[in-house]
Write a structure and sequence with these properties.
Shape: globular
Number of strands: 15
Order of helices and strands: EEEHEEHEEHEHEHEHHEHHHEHEHEHE
Number of helices: 13
Strand content: 15-25%
Helix content: 25-40%
Distance between the termini: 10 Å
Oligomer: single chain
C-alpha cells in the first residue's frame, strides 16, 4: 500500500509499505477513504523527531470502510463505514469506563510514563502506525471504531476522529458560564472549531486571536470577534480587557501549544534538540525540554480573575517555567489533556445532521490526494495558500 512516512525533520514521503494484517482476534482492517492533516502532525514534522524512526506511518484522523475483521469482532461487518478515534483505547478498562480514553490502561505506555497510545504519534505514545495511508489496522474492533451512516460525504463525519471531540472537550473544560465570554488563542483547525462550538453552546462573546489573515477572516465570518496579533502584540491583553469591562474573558482556550509565535530562545533550543542524535535528543527533551510558551503566558494574562484556562494545544516540555505567583494570585483554574474521543461522540453525533450547525461540510479548505501529502505538510507548516484544514484522499 501507499502511506505517508516520516524520514526526518521536515522530510515526509509517500512510500510503498507492507499492507497491514490482522494480528489480534478483535482487529479490523479499514480501507481509508479520508484522513486529515492535524496541527499536531506538525510537531512531528518539526520538533519531536527524536521520538520517531524513519518509516513511521503518520496520521491520526482517518475514516474509511471495513475490509476485513478478526474472528472475535461482532460489532462490525465488512463494508461498514467507520471513523477511527485517534486514541487507541480498549473501551473496557477503569479509565475508559470513566470517560478518560486518552488514559486507557490497556494501552498506557508505562515504559515512557505516558498515557494511552495514539495512532501515528511517536514512541512516546506507542509508535502505532497511523492513518495517512491506503489501509490501516485498527485494534479493539468491537469498541474503538465509530460506525457512521452511509450517504453524506466523508466531510460530515471524518472530524469525529479528532477535531470535533478535541474542540468540544476544550470548550467543556473552559467552563464558560451561561452567556459568558471566551478567548480562543490560535485559529487553526481546533481553534476555529472551538469558536463555532462555543457560539453554538451559548457564549455571548468569542474572541479569536491569530496572525494569519485567512484564519482571521474565516473566524469573523463564523461570528467570532477576530483580533490580529500582529496589530496588538504585547497589548493583546489590554485589547481584550477593553471588550470585557476591564476584566478579561471568563475563559481562555489555548489552541496553539508548543509552537507558539515568538519565544526565540525556546525556538532555538527546540531546533538544537532536533540536530542531536535521536537518543541524546530524546533524553534532553525528557529531562530538560522547554516549550515556546507565548500562547500560554498570554492566556494567563487575558483570563479574568477566577477564570479558567483550557489547554488543547499540545505541549511537550519537561521544565517549562510557569508564573505560579500570577496563577495563584488570579485564582485560576486549569484543565488540559488529550481529548477523550469516545467520551464526546454521544454529544457530537446528533449535531452531524442535515442542518449541519457546526459547518463541518465546508470546514476543509483543501482536498488533495495522498500522494500530495509532503507538499501539504510544507504548506501547512508555512501557513500559506489559505490552508487551515486539509483532507487527504488515499
Amino acid at each position: 500500500m501507499r502511506a505517508l512516512t516520516w524520514q526526518g525533520r521536515r522530510d515526509v514521503r509517500v512510500e510503498t509499505v507492507p499492507d497491514p494484517v490482522i494480528k489480534d482476534p478483535t482487529d479490523v482492517i479499514i480501507r481509508v477513504t479520508s484522513t486529515g492533516v492535524c496541527g499536531s502532525d506538525l510537531h512531528l514534522y518539526e520538533v519531536l523527531g527524536p521520538f520517531l524512526d524513519a518509516g513511521d506511518i503518520l496520521g491520526h484522523e482517518p475514516m474509511g470502510v471495513v475490509e476485513e475483521i478478526g474472528p472475535e469482532v461482532t460489532e462490525l461487518a465488512v463494508g461498514d463505514r467507520v471513523v477511527v478515534p485517534f486514541n487507541v483505547s480498549c473501551g473496557e478498562c477503569f479509565m475508559c469506563g470513566h470517560g478518560l480514553h486518552s488514559q486507557c490502561e490497556t494501552t498506557q505506555n508505562r515504559d515512557q510514563g505516558t498515557g494511552g497510545s495514539l495512532f501515528g504519534y511517536t514512541k512516546l505514545y506507542g509508535q502505532v502506525p497511523g492513518g495517512q495511508a491506503e489501509y490501516m489496522r485498527v485494534p479493539f474492533g468491537n469498541n474503538l471504531p465509530v460506525k457512521v451512516p452511509d450517504g453524506p460525504a466523508d466531510d460530515r463525519y471524518v472530524y469525529l476522529s479528532d477535531v470535533l471531540p478535541t474542540a468540544w472537550q476544550a470548550v467543556e473544560y473552559a467552563a464558560i458560564p451561561p452567556g459568558g465570554t471566551v478567548t480562543v488563542l490560535g485559529l487553526g483547525p481546533i481553534g476555529a472549531m472551538c469558536g463555532r462550538i462555543a457560539l453554538h453552546r451559548g457564549a455571548s462573546l468569542v474572541v479569536g486571536v491569530d496572525l494569519v489573515p485567512e484564519r482571521l477572516s474565516r473566524a469573523a465570518r463564523d461570528g467570532v470577534k477576530a483580533i490580529d496579533l500582529r496589530r496588538h502584540g504585547k497589548d493583546l491583553g489590554d485589547a481584550i480587557r477593553d471588550l470585557t469591562d476591564g476584566r478579561g474573558t471568563d475563559a481562555v482556550i489555548d489552541a496553539v501549544g508548543m509552537e507558539a509565535h515568538g519565544a526565540p530562545l525556546a525556538k532555538a533550543a527546540q531546533w538544537g534538540v532536533g540536530l542531536l542524535p535521536d537518543a541524546m535528543g530524546a533524553k534532553f527533551m525528557e529531562k530538560a525540554g522547554i516549550d515556546r510558551l507565548g500562547a500560554l503566558y498570554a492566556a494567563i494574562d487575558i483570563v479574568r480573575r477566577g477564570g479558567t484556562v483550557s489547554l488543547s494545544g499540545v505541549y511537550g516540555g519537561a521544565v517549562d517555567p510557569m508564573p505560579l505567583l500570577t496563577m495563584f494570585d488570579k485564582q485560576l483554574q486549569f484543565r488540559m489533556g488529550q481529548a477523550n474521543v469516545h467520551r464526546w461522540v454521544g454529544d457530537l453525533l446528533p449535531l452531524l445532521t442535515d442542518e449541519d450547525p457546526l459547518g463541518v461540510d465546508g470546514f476543509a479548505t483543501h482536498h488533495v490526494s495522498l500522494e500530495e501529502a509532503p507538499k501539504v505538510y510544507e504548506t501547512f507548516q508555512a501557513k500559506e495558500d489559505g490552508m487551515i484544514k486539509t483532507l487527504l484522499r488515499p
